[in-house]
Amino acid sequence: MASSARWNHVWVGSETGILKGVNLRRRQATNYVAASALRRDEGVCAMCWGDPSESEILIGCLDGSVKLFSTEKGKFTESRQCLGGEGSFCGLAVHDSSIITCVESGLLKVWRDASSENMETQVGAGVCCMRQNPAQPQCVGTGGKENALKVWDLHRPEEPIFRAKNVQNDWLNLRVPVWERDLQFLPGSEKIVTCTGHHQVRLYDPSSPQRRPVLEATYGEYPLTALSLTPGADSVVVGSSHGDMAVIDLRQGRLVKCLKGFAGSVRSVQCHLTLPLVASCGLDRFLRVHNIEDKRLVHKVYLKSRLNCLLLTSCEKWEDEDPEPTAPQADVKEEEDELWDGMETVATRTVLKRTVDPNVREIQLGKHPKKQKRMSPGP
Amino acid sequence: MSDPGSMASGAAGSAEGPGDAARAPEQALFPPAFSVSEIKNKQRRHFMFLRWKQQQRKEKLANKKKRRKEREALGDKAPPKPVPKTIENQRVYDETTVDPNDEEVAFDESTDEFAPYFNRQTIPKILITTSDRPRGRTVRFCEQLSTIIPNSHVYYRRGLALKRIIPQCISRDFTDLIVINEDRKIPNGLVLSHLPDGPTAHFRMSSVRLRKEIKRKGKEPTKHQPEVILNNFTTRLGHSVGRMFASLFPHDPQFIGRQVATFHNQRDYIFFRFHRYIFRSEKKVGIQELGPRFTLKLRSLQKGTFDSKFGEYEWIHKHREMDTSRRKFHL
Fold first, then answer.
1. Are A169 and A180 in contact (CB under 8 A)?
2. How confident is the model over A245-280, as pLDDT tens digits?
3. Global pTM?
4. A-chain residues within 8 Å CB-CB of B313?
């Protein structure tokens, strides 16, 4: 139903162009498609919230169009062609009712509604990610393959405000390659955390005199593809291309815990703003929600296409929501109740049944008790 | 002699043990029950154990006979025979099992990397190679594989890096690359990479039998294009792997040749066989096994051409997380 679009807790974009809204309480996933015919070149490559109240989602597709989806109405309201440069979108942001897009070939463009006086800059080739500073919406950071981290102010687009410097040569005196895959701005300060394709997590501080990373931590042997900040902002959750997810402490630069379960590359990770939950999606077509504190897998949903990006609503009261189905079915229930009230009651054992949608199954929490082999009595 | 005597008396003494235990319930569980494992003498213990085993076997036979008699006595009213539990019966339901009516999965498959093959826009052309410096067995295996797979070419590896071979293959219109890995003179791994930009599957290969090691084999395989049978690839991952195998062979089989290549998946192991069949009547078929046979187990499926360090994996077999249940399979 369109009106139930607001009850979806997680929004996931897939490679086939379908936007999926997942309600974790009722364990249902609904597909929202822009046109009735699916097209592979409309695959979602970037998503962001359209406004702070999370009622609109901006979706960037492979063919260069940016679509606006309204969660209130449950359908796509408008679509804009944001062509320019080559490659798919690697970052989307909203500032003052204008859209900021960044393409892989390095073209960072601000699109105003008037479709004239669009401001653009070249950020450098091979960009992998672009993010907006939530504290200062006119600042964006970009990074990519052999493209060091740069922070740009959109009012002065000629020169970046901060350009990071590569670390020193390693122990063989060879230049360390640069490949920033994902970045996040830390709230409250100007610091930036990035994760690289060479399995490093780096912390940069523009306010300090050194342009080199303040902190560097390595994790695993595979490229780290996604990054997200935990609620306390003192650790980050990273996902790698091998399906390993870990929580890394930023003050000491060490590994705190690993989250298990992924079988494929993690494409996108996002932590909830206040609850200790982290949602992740990837190429193995599953959406998983873990609890950060006790490493437990809380929800696991099979969504049939490879998933590219996700957005987590900041709705807090998940557990308090009614798991009952909506109003029309309540009427049917009332009729049934009258029917049953008219009949005699027979003492029976009550058996609790969980309503589970056949498309979505929740995994059983807790360990299974080990089945003992039935042994015949020994000699 | 003391020993046989003591053994006889020991046996007699312990023969009274079970008898004692039988009488014990009347005496309110005194003395305590007697167990064979408490005998310290190994010979005597073994003897008692064999006797117990024979007794169990007799009881089992007697139970079976009784049940069969009851069944015959009931005749038509007998309840249906209980189906024995096998691991395949008890398989944990996999939620990624593909429903044939599912539109989203159908769209996904119709536009994935194998779509050009299934829409008959490309003809498969395979390059078979090995790891560096292969030994005789692997070389012969590659030659036999190339007789089975039409339009395939075997090249010597010469220590070249796969990442450099791949762009050259693409420019010469190859659609697939097979690399057979060898360890200690036997082939033990297979990397199958679909070329323009397709997924790369890495398998562990075992039980490789060349043509001369197969008993009752037929003559050499002919040049006709074989049919392909893919058994039991039910999950989404299984579908991707099945399509990879199907895209190795030309889309139109030549039924005159009566040759068939079978990829049979059971419990996550893929068995490859190559047969020639002949229908002797409507229902009777005779088959002859030709060609090599081997068993594969999928280790990882990587999106994109071969790049094990920086590529993104669609599925990796993680032994400690995925092999916890004996009844859960992924293909």
1. no
2. 999 999 988 899 999 889 999 999 999 888 889 999
3. 0.80
4. 241-243, 264-265, 283
